[in-house]
Amino acid sequence: MDRGDRRVFAGLSFSLESGNALVVTGPNGVGKSSLLRTLAGLVSLSEGSLNLEGGQSERSVAEHTHYFGHQSAVKPALSVKENLAFWRDFTAPAHVSNFDPKEYGAQDILEDLGIGHTSELPAAYLSAGQTRRLAVARLFVSPRPIWLLDEPTSALDANSEAQLIDLMNDHLRRGGMIVTATHTPLSLSPLQSLRLEALSIEDLAPLEEIG
Amino acid sequence: MSSWALSLFQRELRLAVRVGGGALVGVLFFLAVVTVIPFGVGPDLNLLARIGPAILWIGALLATLLGLDRLFQADRDDGSLDLILMAGRPLELVVLIKCLAHWMATGLPLVAAAPVLAIFLNLEPTAIGAVTLTLAAGTPALTLIGAIGASLTVTLRRGGLLLAVLVIPLTIPVLIFGVSAADAAVNDPVPFMTPFLILCSLSLISLVVGPFASAAALRFSSD
Amino acid sequence: MGILDFANPTRFMKLTQLVLPWLVGLCAIAFAVGLYMSFFVAPEDYQQGDTVRIMYIHVPAAWLAMMCYSIMAISSLGTLVWKHPLADVSAKCAAPIGAAFTFISLVTGSLWGKPMWGTYWVWDARLTSVLVLFIMYLGLMALWRTMEDPIKAGKAAAILTLVGALNLPIIKFSVDWWNTLHQPASVMRMDGPTIHPDILLPLAVMAVAFTLLFFVIHLMAMRNEILRRRVRTLRLRAASAARPAGGSATLQPAE
Amino acid sequence: MDLGPHAGFIIASYAICFGVVAGLILWVRLDKARLDSTLKDLESQGLAKTRRTPEKPDRQ
């Protein structure tokens, strides 16, 4: 699997079983974020393919995934509840075999993440960490089996980081999949890892012609 | 199907109306443009009555275009656009709903303000009615065509001016038929319906072309 | 919003609580008397007939439109120079009221103009400068609406208000000059009859009534604004009381 | 009472003036009602009672 744009990666191939997590590591600028964005369907593949077995055939792979990037996609003018309710209604849920999501109400997940008391407040009043937790809450209100997490623990304190890891492990137990790019080690249970190395010049040359 | 659309529509309206949304700034800009023009051409009421429909149309065009640059950019800036793209909803419809909400929040007030501003320009009652009607029929086209420009310039830091430059040529037909329909209502021998129906058909065409072109541009923008 | 800021607004809230009912009563009486006089006591004008009765709301509204801007300008000085905590509250609350009175004076003026001049609107110097004043009010309101932080918005608006205060006389002057070059034929001068006591007295009562009305609404709006800022601080505090445990620890220091 | 040939204009003037003033008052009242209720909500969470004297908030 590769992505031909300017300089990213080539000859990459992996498979992930349901209930497993994949941690993508590697030096800065090697394309961890690009890999996640590719899986999320935001960047198109120049060659190769993505497949999801047991998925809904009329939907693309990307529509089975939640993408959790560096930006929180929180609108300060809307209240916390309104922010979450919009993503719940707007994101189409994806159901696949082997994946049995827990049903969360909007208020439940906010309580679980420790920001239940803010639900009526405009999101402008939230601190950076609280905004981040609100963004995490989005993953739970609309069930999708694959989570693509780009540095999920940035801006979270130790407490909420541990909480998030618990929630991630729970997601894995229910048959979900997680692909995450991170620098800090995460204690996820069935864990595979993928290390991206910087490409050498010879590898890059043919790609430049494609892109 | 309809619940997500309603949810999106509500969100867009709320964002436009609440603090920082600035839905009414467009009307204010419209008012300012129309007020400034008599200073340029002089306070001759007969002249103003003759060029009044054109002034109102140009004011509405500029107000619409200047309000459009944040249509997708605000969502891109905070990462919402990525999530909208992968939400699994037909993007053309998403664009259409966003345009509809945007028109309700900014275009409709322009139409409502037009009769008042027409009084400043000494328009006759029939002319006032005609201009308001043509604006009501034509401003959706401006919003929908403008949305194409908004999605093309979504990745740019300062896309506002470029958007206006890109879109103004595309809006010329709307302007021509809008103004000529309004003029025709006052000058008896020319029929009103002919240019007005063309204007309506332009709006309908942009209703189809706008969302498709805009959705295509958005899909490439995330690359 | 420091502790010092809280002291003054609290006293202000208490004081206005006492004063407001009296003001409302006075205002109602003044309006009752003024409206009675303007309809039944004041004679009709020998030239303009009964339309002169529009004057009893038009002139006070126009006068208030200008007074309101002066109050905003003084409040802006208060914000920028003396940093008085209530100054930007006062300026912010005056803007919509000023816009409303300017709107009233524009509308009643054009309704007066239609029977007298034959047209709703002319680009006469006085009318045009009032229209510019109206746009400035709306612009200031928009500025306040688009900025999230009230303190920052207050400072920005204060600067704009003061620049506007300097600029308004220039606008007035330049528009006078602009208009005399292209004097449209249809404009009639606003001289009218010499002011007769029978007309002057109702006008004065109405002016007092309008001024009282302005202060009533202004004080009520200021009270709202103070409440709004209190809500804002409380919400910030509510949000930062992160987890229930951490929050209660800061709120109840010694147990 | 006879207002002459232009009664419509006079009545319209007064009506619009009344309408705008009523709207202004209504806006202020509604704003106050809304703020009072939010304030009450927030105070019921026990967050309000710290003016100048840091007194203990009431237990819920």
From TrEMBL, chain B:
Family: Belongs to the CcmB/CycW/HelB family.
Swiss-Prot/TrEMBL keywords: Cell inner membrane, Cell membrane, Cytochrome c-type biogenesis, Membrane, Transmembrane, Transmembrane helix, Transport
Highest taxon above the source species: Bacteria
Gene coding for it: ccmB
Function: Required for the export of heme to the periplasm for the biogenesis of c-type cytochromes.
Species this protein is from: Roseibium polysiphoniae
Membrane topology: Multi-pass membrane protein
Transmembrane segments: 21-41, 47-72, 93-121, 127-149, 161-182, 194-218
Full protein name: Heme exporter protein B
Subcellular location(s) of the protein: Cell inner membrane
Transport is among the record's keywords: yes
Coiled coil feature spans: none
Predominant place of localization: membrane
From TrEMBL, chain C:
A biological process from GO: cytochrome complex assembly
GO cellular component assignments: plasma membrane
Location in the cell: Cell inner membrane; Membrane
The entry's keywords: Cell inner membrane, Cell membrane, Cytochrome c-type biogenesis, Membrane, Transmembrane, Transmembrane helix, Transport
Residue ranges of the TM segments: 20-41, 61-82, 94-113, 125-144, 156-179, 199-222
Tagged with keyword Cell inner membrane: yes
Domain Cytochrome c assembly protein per the UniProt entry, residue ranges: 7-182
Keyword Cell inner membrane in annotation: yes
GO MF, one annotated term: heme binding
Protein known as: Heme exporter protein C
Organism: Roseibium polysiphoniae
Gene designation per UniProt: ccmC
From TrEMBL, chain D:
Topology within the bilayer: Single-pass membrane protein
Primary localization class, coarse: membrane
Keyword DNA repair (UniProt): no
Regions crossing the membrane: 6-28
Keywords: Cell inner membrane, Cell membrane, Cytochrome c-type biogenesis, Membrane, Transmembrane, Transmembrane helix, Transport
Domain of life: Bacteria
Cellular localisation: Cell inner membrane
Pfam families in the record: CcmD
Family statement: Belongs to the CcmD/CycX/HelD family.
Role, per record: Required for the export of heme to the periplasm for the biogenesis of c-type cytochromes.
Protein's name according to its UniProt entry: Heme exporter protein D
Source organism of the structure: Roseibium polysiphoniae
Species classification: Bacteria, Pseudomonadati, Pseudomonadota, Alphaproteobacteria, Hyphomicrobiales
Gene behind the chain: ccmD
